[in-house]
Amino acid sequence: MAEAVRPEDYCDEAVEDEFGEIIKCRSDEREDVQKKTFTKWINSQFSKSGKPPIQDLFSDLRDGRRLLELLEGLAGHELVRLERGFTRVHSLNNVNRALQILQKNNVELVNIGGADIVDGNHKLTLGLIWSIIVHWQVKDVMKDVMAGLQQTNSEKILLSWVRQNTRQYPQVDVVNFSSSWNDGLAFNALIHSHRPELFDWSTVEKNVSANDRLEHAFSKAEQHLGIERLLDPEDVAVPHPDKKSVIMYVTSLFQVLPQSVSMEAIQEVETLPRGTPSGITRVTTEEHYQIQTQQRYSQQFLTPSQEELQRGLSPLIPGSTSLEGYQTSLEEVLTWLLSAEDGLQSQPPISSHVEEVKEQFHTHEVATTI
Questions:
Q1: Given CB 3.0 to 4.6 Å as the disulfide criterion, which of 52, 163, 275, 336 pairs with 288?
Q2: 109: helix, coil or strand?
Q3: pLDDT digits (tens, 9 = 90+) for 159-187
């Protein structure tokens, strides 16, 4: 005799399906934003050397030619001769040459092979371009400041610089490179702190729309600072803007504005309360969401209310008052998963030599105790 299907089984399946759909939707949204932003960044590099722009990031890089052109522009000189054929073998040769150049330049590549790019793998193509951006856009721009401060965490320095230059604006409190930027105030404050003659801060405060504030900041940065419009307001005016895209744009601001960073500002970032979603380290973000989600789960799902006990109902039955709390917790878990995924992708491969493994562990331990 077949086992009877319980109502809660349908609930569990519905929850699992909903969770999967939300993850896929959020991941697709992030991929779309990164594709758009990274394409703009690549084309801004091509414009400097008079190269034609790319149209589609995933298809235009598959033969390796445009990828090698990009690296030559970043390096400032010709690197290798391109394969002129159009077969898969020619494409693989070009892409593998590009990967060899990146490895020689100590660009971290995690589980990315030539076939992945030639086959147009979206996730790994984005990962490759992000590795290039981090090396030539982020670390290269910040290397002098990092050396002067004897710091190796570029993200921490960038956050310290932002906080140092926006502290006189009480409406602005930047603790990460995602949700802290979605209302547009931080971008405007960062520009205004160095170039107050460009606009009246009160006009920004009067804007009730985040889109308008973001449009204002990006327009001023383009017109007066020469910064490409790498971001679109509608992509930032969301609960959790794409962290990589925001870092890329803020680094562009860092490049053209005064770059002084005090040790006091760095120490302030290091002493941000644990649990603050600073976005600096994976561990801090993980702990924040794990603790908060566990608490909410216990309160909302594991402990039925007195009314539910009297009615003999499960707190997970659809339509209960816990549904809103469940949605909130689901969003927080999803945000943590995406953040943890970024952290895992950025980890270098574990060495096969004991001493190097010890050094890698030490570096990771230092980074995660911020």
A1: 275
A2: coil
A3: 999 999 999 999 999 999 999 999 999 99
Residue with tokens 């990460």: 176
Higher pLDDT pick, 193 / 334 = 193
Length of the chain: 370
Residues 333, 315: Cα–Cα separation, whole Å: 20
Q: What is the pLDDT of residue 300?
A: 43
DSSP H or E stretch at residue 211:
helix 210-225
Measured distance CA(252)–CA(228) in Å, rounded = 8
Say if CB 174 and CB 162 are below 8 A apart: yes
**Is residue 244 a contact partner of residue 134, using CB atoms and an 8 Å limit?**
no
User: What distances in angstroms separate CA 72 from CA 78, 97, 368, one per listed residue?
Assistant: 5, 12, 35
User: What would the two tokens of residue 368 be?
Assistant: 């995660």
Please give the structure tokens belonging to residue 245: 């895209």
Task: Please name which of 138, 337, 141, 166 lies closest in space to residue 268, comparing C-alpha atoms.
Answer: 166
Q: How many CA atoms are closer than 13 Å to the CA of 197, on its beta-carbon side?
A: 2
Crossing angle for the helix pair 210-225 and 185-194, nearest 10 degrees? Answer: 30
Residue identified by tokens 């909903």 is 18
Distance CA 63, CA 67 (A): 8
Chain segment 86-108, per-residue pLDDT in tens = 899 999 999 999 999 999 998 98
* Nearest alpha-carbon partner for 249 in 168, 191, 167, 163: 191
For the chain, first and last CA: distance in Å? 58
> Can you tell me the distance from the alpha carbon of 27 to that of 23, in angstroms, rounded to the nearest whole number?
6
CA-wise closest residue to 306 among 297, 315, 319: 315
**140: exposed, middle or buried (Cβ count in 10 Å: 0-12, 13-18, 19+):** middle
**Greatest mean pLDDT among 9-23, 136-150, 316-330, 333-347:** 136-150
The answer to whether the beta carbons of residues 316 and 301 sit under 8 Å apart is yes
Q: What is the pTM of this model?
A: 0.70
Give the separation between CA 66 and CA 108, rounded to whole angstroms: 20
d(CA 34, CA 15): 28
- Could you tell me the two tokens for 202? 């009160």
